[in-house]
Amino acid sequence: MNIGIIGAGNVGTGIAKHLKARDHQVMLSFSKDANKLKATSDSFGVRSGSPAEAAAFGDVVALTTPWNATAEALRQVGKPGQNKILWDCTNALKPDMSGLQLGTTTSGGEEVAKLAPWARVVKAIPPFAEVLHSSSTVVGGSHPGVFVCGDDPEARAVICRLVRDIGGEPVNAGPLQLARYAEPAAMLLVQLAYMQGFGARIGLTLSRDAAAEGV
Q1: How far are the Cα atoms of 87, 98, 126, 195 from residue 145, in angstroms, in the given order?
Q2: Does the structure show a pLDDT above 60 at 212?
């Protein structure tokens, strides 16, 4: 599968590393320094381009920008065509990570959908970058859980497969509106990891009875 990644920071490159290893074709984009972007892409064995080029390239477009850069990144994408799957990896963190800039009555995922009317948006916040770039994504004996929220069941299923490819354990959670609750769960992990001293090798898992499997 072709994956265009918008955001060449630690999360974007961590996703690129895992997807490349699973034989996906990957293009990284969105950096202030074109030379650094090219060097970074070369180091991971993937392509580089502009956000518009990455969006045109990808069967799936992964959005891995800091929240404050998200609107500008999507502006640079333009209009790549209808029905692209946009994997929203962002979270609306305040710059000092003290809280969320929005939540409960809307979500970052829903706001991204407004900015990208060309896309079928699926919110699925990946494991921390430190985990993605480590030798193993297993944390405490399990792969970190990732809640997958989107209004299109087919798009959710695609992102569930990609979450597995990057070493997460997807939870097919249902409509995009439920990102209003998944995003605060990810914010809790941020607080525990970076503010309360738990460290970045931390994740959530969902336990359920066998009768609920496949729901």
Answers
A1: 16, 23, 9, 21
A2: no
For residues 148 and 163, the answer to whether their CB atoms sit within 8 Å is yes
* Residue 85 C-beta-side C-alpha neighbours within 13 Å: 24
68: CB partners within 8 A, 6+ apart: 95
CATH of the domain at 57: 3.40.50.720
Domains of the chain: total: 1
The answer, as to whether pTM is greater than 0.90, is yes
The token duo for 61 is: 């477009």
Beta strands in the chain (DSSP E): 2-6, 25-29, 47-49, 60-63, 84-88, 119-123, 145-150, 169-174
Q: Which domain holds residue 54?
A: 2-212
List the one residue out of 44, 59, 43 whose CA is nearest residue 4.
59
- Of 202, 215, 120, the C-alpha closest to 171 is 215
For residue 213, pLDDT beyond 60: no
